[in-house]
């Protein structure tokens, strides 16, 4: 549900779309420019005489930027391969400025697997840094200055990626390891809350540091971490709540939809009367699709009397009354539909469910829980859920 915004696809790996986040696109040219400018000093650090390097500083800058891109890619691929081997399903890989997001449709169920999945990225980066560093050292005597310089910088980038991602700043990898290690004792919700507070504290630190050092990269990273920590804590809380609420308690009940044989004129009248954008289409009392106001409106007036709801309906994504709210919300996101059709276990229409239904239902449920909490004896409130 996250990370897909602000990014576009560049390819795929075993059918998983690989996306690039705009933050990486902004950073690459800036990095190329900055590195080109600091070229002489960079050469000094690598103990390579800059006058003996061929190629312009700008070209080297570009090469380093592409190197960062490749390093982030390898880092992210390590997370993904591990998740796939653990039987997880990865929805997409998004490459961001520092690291990335491997979006899982289902997080590893065991905390140990989550910790290992988080650790495998930074460890791969550090291993790469060691290998590249070793190669730099081996080439000390022989080898061209150009190659040594390039290897040295790739080693540094990977070391930075590995160490930075290990900081316990949730939702970065280190923070995920912390969360996984707390989940056994505190439960998923409390563990995420603790990790999220740590993440936001780190974000504030990075923010202050960014201002003091006038570093725009660090400022962007700080914002990402802050928002990510907050967003994930919210999502985990929502999941914990919704898993306990059946769809029956959230939906808008509805026994009758637009008949599949109804004319579009009748359908339009029905949509307007109900003040709805979408209505289920039924045959007997079973849903067969749903019809959208804008689609009906786009049909010329003259044709509305002769054409039927069946001709313009879209497929219905169905959820059962007794499934839980989290399953429903995930299905909505995965199928990218604004509304689910709710059915009885025997397949007859029972209602509809959209994001507003879920939000309203959750607010009611939480208010009820709070009232119950106030009445309960103290020892009861403090028992973990
Ligand atoms: Zn990572």
UniProtKB/TrEMBL annotation:
SUPFAM superfamilies linked: CBS-domain pair (SSF54631)
Main location: membrane
Family matches, as Pfam families: CBS, Peptidase_M50
Signal peptide (UniProt feature, chain positions): none
Membrane-crossing residue ranges in chain numbering: 20-39, 59-78, 115-139, 151-170, 202-229
Sequence positions that bind Zn(2+): 75, 79, 173
Keywords from the named record: CBS domain, Cell membrane, Hydrolase, Membrane, Metal-binding, Metalloprotease, Protease, Repeat, Transmembrane, Transmembrane helix, Zinc
Cofactor info, note text: Binds 1 zinc ion per subunit.
A GO BP entry: proteolysis
Membrane disposition: Multi-pass membrane protein
PANTHER family to which the protein is assigned, alphabetical: MEMBRANE-ASSOCIATED ZINC METALLOPROTEASE M50B, STAGE IV SPORULATION PROTEIN FB
Residue ranges annotated for the CBS domain, each copy included: 305-370
Organism: Pseudomyxococcus hansupus
Family statement drawn from the similarity comment of this UniProt entry: Belongs to the peptidase M50B family.
GO molecular function: metal ion binding; metallopeptidase activity
Protein name: Zinc metalloprotease
Subcellular location: Cell membrane
UniProt cofactor(s): Zn(2+)
InterPro entries in UniProt: CBS_dom (IPR000644), CBS_dom_sf (IPR046342), Peptidase_M50 (IPR008915), UCP006404_Pept_M50_CBS (IPR016483)
Active site, per annotation: 76
Source domain of life: Bacteria
Gene Ontology annotations for the cellular component aspect, listed alphabetically: plasma membrane
